[in-house]
Amino acid sequence: MQEGLTPSKYKARSVYNAQGIRFDSQAECDYDACLRQLVAKGEVVSYTRQPSFVLQEGFRDANDVAILPIAYRADFDVYYADGHREIVDVKGIMTDVFRLKRKLFLYRYPFLVLRCVKRIGRRSGHLPSDWRDVAFDGKKKKARKKQKASS
User: Fold this and answer.
1) Other CB atoms within 10 A of residue 134 CB
2) Is 124 left (phi over 0), alpha (psi -120 to 50) or beta?
3) Structure pTM?
4) C-beta neighbour count of 17 within 10 angstroms
5) Distance from C-alpha of 11 to C-alpha of 142, rounded to nearest angstrom
6) If residue 79 lies in a helix (H) or strand (E), which one and from where to where?
7) How would you label 24-44 residue by residue, b for 16+ Cβ within 10 Å and e otherwise?
8) Cα torsion at 78, 69, 23, 94 (round to 10°)?
9) Up-side HSE of residue 57: CA atoms within 13 Å toward CB?
């Protein structure tokens, strides 16, 4: 394994893009390339990588033990030309920890849009059409399968 590239338990490896920016996964790197194209087209005004949101403040328990705050670090904070803002998380696998943090995020920041995306199949990921929203309840996935079967 190359030095500096660490695999996670989900087999995602850190990668560097042509500009030398480190990403936690190849999918994240590809989504960044997609955002760069949208900036060039003027559809996206700007975006930041890995914004952090506090989901619950830290506190001290009854025994005066410090409990650390719960934070969520998204992949991208995207500002669109039409004025809306999206917090984007690139997902390969939907974990229980993320499902819980998603609920806390939606409760704490109801005015923000949290969008989770996944690359479609083996597409490059450099185009907006290469990504789809992740289904949380399984209904969208079942509907897609049903639609595909009827085609």
Assistant:
1) 17
2) alpha
3) 0.76
4) 15
5) 27
6) strand 76-80
7) bbbbbbbbbebbeebbeeeeb
8) -80
9) 3
| Domains located in the chain, CATH noted | 15-150 (3.40.1350)
Burial (Cβ within 10 Å: 0-12, 13-18, ≥19) of residue 98: middle
DSSP for 24-43, please give it.
SSHHHHHHHHHHHHHHHHTS
Mean pLDDT by 10 residues, the chain (151 residues): 50 72 86 92 95 96 96 96 95 87 96 90 71 69 65 65
State how far Cα 147 lies from the chain centre.
Answer: 26
Give pLDDT, residue 24: 83
Amino acid at 12: A
d(CA 44, CA 61): 44
Q: Indicate the helix (H) or strand (E) that contains 73.
A: strand 70-73
